[in-house]
Write a structure and sequence with these properties.
Helix content: 40-55%
Largest sheet: 10 strands, mixed
Number of helices: 16
Organism: Hydra vulgaris (Hydra)
CATH superfamily of the largest domain: Isopropylmalate Dehydrogenase
Radius of gyration: 24 Å
GO cellular component, one term: mitochondrion
Strand order of the largest sheet: 6-4-7-18-17-8-9-16-14-15
InterPro entries: IsoCit/isopropylmalate_DH_CS, Isocitrate_DH_NADP, IsoPropMal-DH-like_dom
EC number: 1.1.1.42
Structural class: alpha/beta
Family: Belongs to the isocitrate and isopropylmalate dehydrogenases family.
Shape: globular
């Protein structure tokens, strides 16, 4: 077909390991209507017509499974396209599938989330799509049984560990903080605090107390927190553990050594003198006892800073360091860094567990609800899939490391390079075009639709990487 009709390319392709089908074909000129001549030429070069059957080459055998966690809305749509176009055609891969879409989480009373985390512990590699954390509006929209907690929070509390987020750098994407000439990696403590807290709304006056009952029979400790008056208010109790903080510290120190970058750890110990003070003390003790000599031999250092001071210093820096953050701080500041480096859609996110061999890779952004509403109406969308692709490549790279699978590692790196090369060649989605031209100035000729970008990445991959022979 391809040799007879060279002016046809496939817009959408679905593959489920055992079968493939052409979903839609259109003349190349129709695909690139509205693109500038320069962009049109680049897109045509990136999508040189090829037959999209994959029987002409073999697949890389992946010996051990990965755990796949499906998600919601637009990212769920893109997730399945990534699998069908960029993963399954090239890999003989066993995915242990868990549907973390909000309807199924509600149907299973969120048991599927716990089961998925347990599977990650078993198989050591989890690859997760973005999911909805329901608020009051979502409870109404989906008619939920209750307002389920963040699936990310649930999984992280089961796995423990640290979430490391690092920007994906593209030469032509301008940085909102131009002084950041090197990457900044945030290590987010992925346990406890607000993400495992109990919070309540209270009506009317009353006393809020926190109590601790020692298991050894010692005297119960009760702390008076606040006396509510009038119509009441809100209250919360949260916690963390020495074991988790120690794991967090070890992960951060080891990651900094691997990067050969200095490590900063931030808290607000001037306000939370005992809670945040415990983080500061544990980090300092572990550094002095286990890591100081190694850091000094590498010419790097560790330093604790107040969170507000650290934010200011970060903005003034040139980058090139690891920043250890408590759970909430890491949640907020990782998005700040992503946008500062150019785009929230250009950020990797990997949860590294204390055992050093278990990870969960995910997209660092949300489910792109606004684009999903357009998709439901049949409107074309230009949604950035790069972070979701990197969730797969980061997970597969770790699988390759654990299994000693060099071919899988080469494939993962090639797919990442294909994503970046396309952007640097001017083939990108609308959000990235907005970074270059300003979102108000973006024209249709400046960007590709989601399917077009995925197709360009696939073709670029086949240019820079040779699949194994059948």
């Amino acid at each position: 077909l391809c040799s007879l009709l060279p002016d046809l390319v496939t817009l959408r392709f679905s593959n489920s390991c055992s079968r493939s089908k052409m979903a839609m074909k259109a003349p190349l000129n129709n695909i690139v209507v509205g693109l500038s001549r320069c962009t049109r030429n680049m897109f045509a070069a990136a999508t040189t017509p090829q037959c999209r059957t994959y029987s002409s080459h073999g697949k890389i055998k992946v010996e051990n499974p990965v755990v796949e966690l499906d998600g919601d809305e637009m990212t769920r749509i893109i997730w399945h396209r990534i699998k069908s176009e960029l993963i399954f055609p090239f890999l003989d891969l066993d995915c242990k599938y868990y549907d973390l879409g909000l309807p199924y989480r509600d149907q299973t009373n969120d048991k599927v989330t716990v089961e998925s985390a347990e599977a990650i512990l078993k198989y050591n590699v989890g690859i997760k799509c973005a999911t909805i954390t329901p608020d009051e509006e979502r409870v109404k929209e989906f008619n939920l049984k209750q307002m389920w907690k963040s699936p990310n929070g649930t999984i992280r509390n089961i796995l423990g560990g640290t979430v490391f987020r690092e920007p994906i750098l593209c030469k032509n994407i301008p940085r909102l903080v131009p002084g950041w000439t090197e990457p900044i990696v945030i290590g987010r403590h992925a346990f406890g605090d607000q993400y495992k807290a109990e919070d309540r709304v209270v009506k009317g006056p009353g006393k809020f107390e926190i109590s601790f009952t020692p298991a050894n029979g010692d005297k119960k400790i009760t702390v008076d927190v606040f006396n509510f008056k009038g119509t009441g208010g809100v209250m919360m109790g949260m916690y963390n553990t020495d074991e988790s903080i120690k794991d967090f510290a070890h992960s951060c120190f080891n990651y900094a050594i691997a990067k050969k970058w200095p490590l900063y750890m931030s808290t607000k110990n001037t306000i939370l003198k005992q809670y945040d003070g415990r983080f500061k003390d544990i980090f300092e003790q572990i550094y002095q006892e286990k890591f100081k000599a190694k850091f000094e031999s590498l010419g790097i250092w560790y330093e604790h800073r107040l969170i507000d001071d650290m934010v200011a210093q970060c903005l003034k820096s040139s980058g090139g360091f690891v920043w250890g953050c408590k759970n909430y701080d890491g949640d907020v500041q990782s998005d700040t860094l992503a946008q500062g480096f150019g785009s929230l859609g250009l950020m990797t996110s990997v949860l590294l567990c204390p055992d050093g061999k278990t990870i969960e890779a995910e997209a660092a952004h949300g489910t792109v609800t606004r684009h999903y509403r357009d998709y439901q109406k049949g409107k074309p969308t230009s949604t950035n899939p790069i972070a979701s692709i990197y969730a797969w490549t980061q997970g597969l790279s770790h699988r390759a490391k654990l299994d000693g699978n060099q071919e899988l590692e080469k494939f993962s790196k090639a797919l990442e390079k294909a994503c970046v090369d396309c952007v640097e060649d001017g083939l990108m989605t609308k959000d990235l075009a907005g970074c270059i031209y300003g979102i108000k100035n973006v024209k249709r000729e400046h960007y590709l639709l989601t399917d077009e970008y995925l197709d360009a990445v696939r073709q670029k991959l086949l240019q820079i990487w040779t699949p194994p022979k059948a």
